[in-house]
């Protein structure tokens, strides 16, 4: 079975640890599939692996610094280290600097080059330098194996990179320019995922709603066209997409939320700040008003939609009044879920040069706490509104208690309940209680018909 015979001294087992966003999770799964194909065995912890891949995130300073402490922790009691590969965005950003700073690193591979992983592993096994951070014009996707057995909920990267150049963000540098995968390739992968057991597909992209391609008839299609095509895949029950930019929310995509039953009522639409002055300094190229107008149109199309967002506090130049405006947009939107971060200066980005107006860390801390308290309040309120309702749940995994399973509601809430229905089933559930991060449900009483 094994094709690793061409590499007899190489690693026999591997462990992939992915940090950061869902696109990294997807890349981690694809790297695992490549190594499976090479005959390596997956193990579930770094201690047991001959090859450890750290699939890294560069978005904030803490995430990037973490890599070096993680590398240090891979050293074993006898002083040995496994073969170590640093993949992902830190690999892209720091390249050859990584093995200079951490000599135990054997392989450095960027997010656009990981289809070359088997070759890099073979090189490293021969003691050669193994670094690949190229961003080739030809897509890596065509060189990856067919999708294998799937959990009920699968990721599918359809778009990578970003041309928006928000002034705080490293993504345009680490992931490159916006590229959409072709229509046929995406549909083939979606069909393969559904055949392999996926009931839900989340389309991924740094700017997923900027996705565009020609369909088989040569017509230009946007994400809404793709969603309509996915709607026709038998066995696929749920469609989601993330992350979107407000300026790429076309009317067609908004309408799809009202037209496609499989498209789940959830939209992650980052705004970052509620102050027009800060949005301008961030180069977001939308205003508070235009963002709120998009939200309003989405809610018209799908009144029960859950809105989620990302926020940055303490961006250079942010005054107390700017921050108050962020609280205001939160109150106006009432997010069902949100992610909020303290601004982190990233080398090479324009905002990192705005040192003269940096916000003091203790002020940023205090703002983050106030923002998170408000977001939490809304998240709990949203969850509590679902108590007493009957909804559909996609069962994803076993719970901690025997007989318990955990599933996802249409609004991306985790719900636990007791049932013997199998993982992958979509069942009715009555929500009986709700906390900030999870809900409890029961099976509906079987009413006599
Ligand atoms: N500092 C803090 N947060 C950031 N994000 C992106 N870059 C930075 C940064 N330099 C946040 C944004 C983005 C999310 C993925 O991470 O909110 O939407
Ligand atoms: Fe970064 Fe802005 Fe692009 Fe999002 S839209 S990836 S925040 S540059």
Written overview of the protein:
- With 449 residues, the chain is α/β, with parallel strands linked by helices.
- Among the domains are: 13-132, Methylthiotransferase, N-terminal domain (Rossmann fold); 146-264, 2-Layer Sandwich (Transcription Regulator spoIIAA); 387-448, Beta Barrel (OB fold (Dihydrolipoamide Acetyltransferase, E2P)).
- Helices cover 32% and strands 22% of the residues.
- The chain contains 13 helices and 21 strands.
- The protein has helices at residues 22-37, 61-73, 88-94, 97-101, 117-125, 171-174, 183-195, 223-231, 251-259, 276-281, 288-301, 320-333, 361-385; strands spanning 13-18, 41-42, 51-56, 83-87, 107-109, 130-132, 153-157, 159-160, 179-180, 200-204, 212-214, 220-222, 238-242, 266-268, 306-313, 337-342, 390-398, 404-408, 414-418, 426-434, 438-442.
- The strands form 6 sheets. Strands 2-1-3-4-5-6 form a 6-stranded parallel beta sheet, sandwiched between helices. Strands 17-18-19-21-20 form a 5-stranded mixed barrel.
- Helix 8 (223-231) runs parallel beside helix 9 (251-259), helix 9 runs parallel beside helix 11 and helix 12 (320-333) packs parallel to helix 13.
- The model is unreliable at 1-6 (pLDDT under 50).
- Bound molecules: 5'-deoxyadenosine and iron/sulfur cluster.
- The site of iron/sulfur cluster has 10 residues, from helix 6.
Question: What distinguishing features does this structure have?
Answer:
449 residues; alpha/beta; Rossmann fold; Transcription Regulator spoIIAA; OB fold (Dihydrolipoamide Acetyltransferase, E2P); 21 strands; globular; disordered N terminus; binds 5'-deoxyadenosine; binds iron/sulfur cluster
